[in-house]
């Protein structure tokens, strides 16, 4: 699949532990628990694969999309979406692929992208067809193709798409994704977007970067409802070594660069490989810092200004101080930011938090009682939370000694259990 460059320091969170906290003032309920029957046969086995982060995106309608492996069924893994209290199959391995062949797995990073209409974008491997993998969109029970390995690579003369992965979908139906382009013996990383029925190149490895040097590699792209595409990138040459960039119809712009001063002091050293972007243009990211009072923090770049959201050592709601942050903060269309963090000097070792205009709020943490399930024992190796319209989703896991449950949950504020 896609070659990765070290865009971020991989922070490993201690995601299991003991302790207890008061129940939060909102309703938490399971979306799916491992072991329950799956649509189409078999049972849900796991919601993660190879220790990948588990993100279950939620939309304004409260639908939640997720990946899961299956046990004792006709398929081994698939993508699913909630519809009210029901779970509906989106696609599973063995399903027919658009254009021929069958789906044979959901890529190295099996995280679906969901928009407010309930449309889902995903990458999948294909067997027995004219391609080996592709990016697809599911809507209304039908699959259609966005891009296939083997297709011509627009904007790269004599180039061919060799690999495609990690699509991002907006409410207009635009899909941005990461690709590897083969040109003769040369392989190049690139970012593409399909909009208005046309596939176009956003940027390709080797092209000039706005602040000098050339692009050497890319993180995962995101796309807003305006069609703007943001992405992290590594830069080679006598220039900033990397940064966060935006393609908004004009020349590419660097929003934040490595080496620039931070609002907390010192300079930005590295950025998370995954970022978040909403329709107001707010770009949210995790960064490690150099020569600063703190080692890392979560930031938002908006309107030409970078502001801190949370930093290591800050007081955490519910007690203690932030000790580590999850690798991927997410942002809602109306501005609230969800993130996970490890907490020191607290009964809760890891928790989910939301930063909103009215302040920072703790949503749920290790040791909290999950209704009908019992104490939350672990968030897994790389905790992540998703947010939309006040709803927050998160995944739980069992500990190494078998405590807890594995599943996906949703927190809905303002509703008492």
Characterization of the model:
- The protein is mainly β and 417 residues long.
- Helices cover 0% and strands 48% of the residues.
- It contains no helices and 34 strands.
- The strands form 8 sheets. Strands 6, 7, 8, 9 and 10 form a 5-stranded antiparallel β-sheet that branches. Strands 15, 16, 17, 18 and 19 form a 5-stranded antiparallel β-sheet that branches.
- The chain is globular, with a radius of gyration of 21 Å.
Keywords:
single chain, 417 residues, mainly beta, five-stranded antiparallel β-sheet, 48% strand, globular, disordered N terminus
User: How big is the Rg?
Assistant: 21 Å
Number of strands: 34
Biggest sheet layout:
5 strands, antiparallel
Report mean pLDDT, rounded to a whole number.
91
Q: Show unreliable segments.
A: 1-24
Write the topology of this structure.
Layout (H helix, E strand, L loop, with lengths): L25 E8 L9 E4 L18 E7 L5 E7 L2 E7 L9 E2 L9 E2 L5 E8 L5 E7 L2 E7 L11 E10 L5 E9 L2 E10 L2 E7 L9 E5 L3 E2 L5 E8 L5 E6 L5 E5 L9 E5 L4 E2 L5 E8 L5 E7 L2 E7 L9 E5 L4 E2 L5 E8 L5 E7 L2 E7 L3 E2 L3 E2 L9 E4 L2 E6 L10 E7 L4
Antiparallel strand pairs: 1-34, 2-3, 3-4, 4-5, 6-8, 7-8, 8-9, 9-10, 11-12, 12-13, 13-14, 15-17, 16-17, 17-18, 18-19, 20-22, 21-22, 22-23, 23-24, 25-27, 26-27, 27-28, 28-29, 30-31, 32-33, 33-34
């Amino acid at each position: 699949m896609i070659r990765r460059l070290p865009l971020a320091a991989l922070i490993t969170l201690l995601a299991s532990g003991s302790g207890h906290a008061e129940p939060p003032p909102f309703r938490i309920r399971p979306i799916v628990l491992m072991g329950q029957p799956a649509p189409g046969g078999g049972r849900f086995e796991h919601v993660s694969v190879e220790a990948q982060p588990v993100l279950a995106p939620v939309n304004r309608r409260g639908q939640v999309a997720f990946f899961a492996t299956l046990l004792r069924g006709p398929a081994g893994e698939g993508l699913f979406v909630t519809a009210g209290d029901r779970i509906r199959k989106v696609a599973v391995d063995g399903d027919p692929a658009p254009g021929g062949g069958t789906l044979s797995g959901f890529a190295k990073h099996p995280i679906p992208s969901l928009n407010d209409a309930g449309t889902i974008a995903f990458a999948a491997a294909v067997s027995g067809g004219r391609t080996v993998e592709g990016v697809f969109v599911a809507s209304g029970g039908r699959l259609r193709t966005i891009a296939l390995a083997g297709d011509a690579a627009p904007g790269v003369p004599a180039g061919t798409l060799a690999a495609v992965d990690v699509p991002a979908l907006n409410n207009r139906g635009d899909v941005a994704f990461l690709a590897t382009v083969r040109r003769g013996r040369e392989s190049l990383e690139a970012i593409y977007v399909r909009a208005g029925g046309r596939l176009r190149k956003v940027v390709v490895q080797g092209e000039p970067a706005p602040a000098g040097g050339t692009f050497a590699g890319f993180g995962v792209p995101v796309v807003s409802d305006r069609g703007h595409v943001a992405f992290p990138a590594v830069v080679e040459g006598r220039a900033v070594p990397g940064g966060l960039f935006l393609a908004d119809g004009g020349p590419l712009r660097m929003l934040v660069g490595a080496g620039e001063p931070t609002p907390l002091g010192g300079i930005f050293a590295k950025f998370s490989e995954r970022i978040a972007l909403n329709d107001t243009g707010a770009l949210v990211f995790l960064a490690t810092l150099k020569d600063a009072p703190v080692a890392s923090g979560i930031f938002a770049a908006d309107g030409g200004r970078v502001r801190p959201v949370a930093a290591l050592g800050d007081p955490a709601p519910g007690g203690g101080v932030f000790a580590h942050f999850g690798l991927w903060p997410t942002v809602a269309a109306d501005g609230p930011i969800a993130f996970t963090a490890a907490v020191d000097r607290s009964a809760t070792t890891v928790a989910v938090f939301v930063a909103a205009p009215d302040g920072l709020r703790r949503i749920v943490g290790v040791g909290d009682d999950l209704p009908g399930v019992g104490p939350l024992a672990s968030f897994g190796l790389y905790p992540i939370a998703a947010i939309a319209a006040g709803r927050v989703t998160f995944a739980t896991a069992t500990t190494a000694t078998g405590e807890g449950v594995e599943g996906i949950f949703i927190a809905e504020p303002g509703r008492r259990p």
